[in-house]
């Protein structure tokens, strides 16, 4: 594998993150010191590595399925295994390491990431490859949770949406540079070398985190029970279901980009990296826009992201066999769905502020349930003989369910707020009638009504 090529990718990714994510014209970057910017870059490099390994598997799915002698629907189990690794690892690793300083936790997590990718490169059969992908996914959720806490510490209060978007930017940049390059390397020198290259990049990330993440007691961990307290709230679990159902469509499409390009619109395999990069550009644009929107109007971010995605999925399902439509749709799905993800993080952190690391981890766990759902639903419809475009309709159904559930959540919260406001207004107008013996007039007294408690 060409180390110089990897170096170019890292430099280009860092340059893009610096230009687009860290220097927000409105606020955050102008107040950041040079060291703070390097801290954010180090965090984003870690998510760049994570995003590269996650999305590269989808770009080279045809390659490892051929080598390991499984068909395409079966090969999607490797993608699902990675997602399940995230789902399991997010709460387990976050809670096991709850007392660790966030800096130390990040270093351990990247170490596990490197191990998983080395195992993936040397897996002799499909069963062990699936296990290796599971191991590779274990650190992702906890890394995003801890990384969001560190980014929030650097940027300051009131910017949790932008902080999470900066951490996510590494992942979206990976879809522009990392995943297409990994796909290209897989097509030219082999998919096993792709995973070895990703492991090497993980070591670079490890050194960056060691060097630039500050050693401070302000990033100290917390007792396990303190982190668990956020999971006692029903609304947190509801938001996780909203995320798992709604975000799935991004994976229902992305998992099958390669066969859509080669088998649906009959373009050569060398065009697949271009399609992946276009999808990634959309994700990056949507993520940066969504980060700003989330800090102002989180509800609108989710509704707008989900609603626009549904409209674009209809276009894909009806007319995606035309290459001139297919490629703009790749950009559109990535942009609209990613716009909702920072808003989901803001909602979850707001519901469980005392468990910030775990909330970030569980958000990523939810997104990887979405990953598994999208890949599984798409694989099932293809396996049923409905064709590649059926994946758009599979994603449409699940995202619609997520949007309906979130609309019900917002409606219930709004009605409760109105009820609470109505009860509070009675502080000035509540009237109590004091009954008197027969023949006497009743006594009317104004008394305050008790404040109605908010439902957790």
Automatic annotation (TrEMBL):
Keywords: Cell membrane, Membrane, Transmembrane, Transmembrane helix. Pfam families: MFS_1 (PF07690). It is a multi-pass membrane protein. It is found in: Cell membrane. The chain crosses the membrane at residues 40-64, 76-98, 105-132, 138-156, 163-182, 194-213, 234-258, 270-289, 301-319, 325-344, 365-386, 392-412. Residues 435-449 have a biased composition (Basic and acidic residues). SUPFAM superfamilies: MFS general substrate transporter. CDD domains: MFS_NepI_like. Residues 39-415 form the Major facilitator superfamily (MFS) profile domain. InterPro entries: MFS, MFS_dom, MFS_Efflux_Transporters, MFS_trans_sf. Residues 430-456 are annotated as: Disordered. This is DHA1 family inner membrane transport protein. It comes from Rhizobium halophytocola. The lineage of its organism: Bacteria, Pseudomonadati, Pseudomonadota, Alphaproteobacteria, Hyphomicrobiales.
